Each structure stands twice: as C-alpha cells, then as structure tokens.
Amino acid sequence: MTNYNLELDKAAAKIKQENANTVLIQLPDGLKPKAKEIQEELKKKTNATIYIWAGTCFGACDVPNVKDVDLLIQFGHSEWR
After folding, report:
1. Domain definitions of the chain by residue range
2. What are the beta bridge partners of residue 67?
C-alpha cells in the first residue's frame, strides 16, 4: 500500500477479534482504486470473505444498509474516534 497507511493489520485484528466470516469494506472514491489490493491483503490475513461496497461513501454517517455481513469497516480521509 504505497503512500497510504491504511492500518490493514489493525483491520485484520478486528476481523479476527469479531470472528467475522463476511466483511464489507467501504471506501471513499479516492481509495477505490486500491480496493482489490485491500481485499486481497485482508483475505490473506484473515481467510474472511471480503466484499467491497461499490456505492457512495460520504463519510462515517453514510453507512450502507446491508444485511448478511458480520462486520463493516469504513475507511475515510481522517481519523474518527
């Protein structure tokens, strides 16, 4: 992940902690070109099925209304606590 610190180790640890088998990743448009790379890295580290949300992402309040995933991970432009 050149030029980005997406904390994929932290995301993988959360996936394992939650025993998540299916994970939905939501990315802002600027990170969508890295989606496949993110998906492959998390799959390799967790063996979870990783889906990428292809819809819009206007920030932390724009949560996809989906069912049948164990965990949603949102990536954004700034840290959210």
Report:
1. 1-21+28-58
2. none
